[in-house]
């Protein structure tokens, strides 16, 4: 996964949420809301992100 890609994550209540990838490490993928990602890019700062286990994040594949 790469920065800016859309992913689906599952929150603590089991709800599926769409988020943007901020960064990737060996065991975690850091994600944030799309609005936060856009604001951070415009303001030239790091987005406020949370790290989730790799297994809890799924890449949203675009339709052909």
Question: How is this structure best summarized?
Answer:
This protein is of the alpha+beta class and 64 residues long. It contains one helix and five strands.
Secondary-structure topology with pairs:
Blueprint: E1 6-10, E2 16-24, E3 28-32, H1 34-43, E4 50-53, E5 57-59
Antiparallel strand pairs: 1-2, 1-5, 2-3, 3-4
Please characterize this protein's 3D structure.
The protein has 64 residues and is α+β, with helices and mostly antiparallel strands. The chain has a single domain (6-59), classed as SH3 type barrels (Roll), CATH 2.30.30. It is 16% helix and 41% strand. The chain has one helix and five strands, in the order βββαββ. β2 and β3 form a beta hairpin. It is globular, with a radius of gyration of 11 Å. The model has no long low-confidence stretch (mean pLDDT 93).
CATH class: Mainly Beta
Distance between the termini: 18 Å
CATH-scheme architecture: Roll
Structural class: alpha+beta
Mean pLDDT: 93
How many independent structural domains?
1
Number of strands: 5
Radius of gyration: 11 Å
Kindly state the percentage of residues in helix.
10-25%
The CATH topology assignment is: SH3 type barrels
Q: Poorly predicted ranges (pLDDT <50, ≥5 residues)?
A: none
- Helical stretch count? 1
Features:
64 residues, alpha+beta, SH3 type barrels, 5-stranded antiparallel beta sheet, 5 strands
């Amino acid at each position: 996964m790469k920065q800016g890609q859309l992913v689906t994550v599952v929150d603590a209540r089991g709800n599926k949420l769409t988020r943007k990838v901020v960064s990737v490490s060996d065991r975690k993928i850091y994600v944030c809301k799309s609005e936060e990602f856009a604001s951070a890019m415009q303001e030239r700062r790091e987005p406020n992100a949370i790290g989730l286990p790799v297994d809890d994040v799924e890449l949203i594949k675009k339709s052909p």
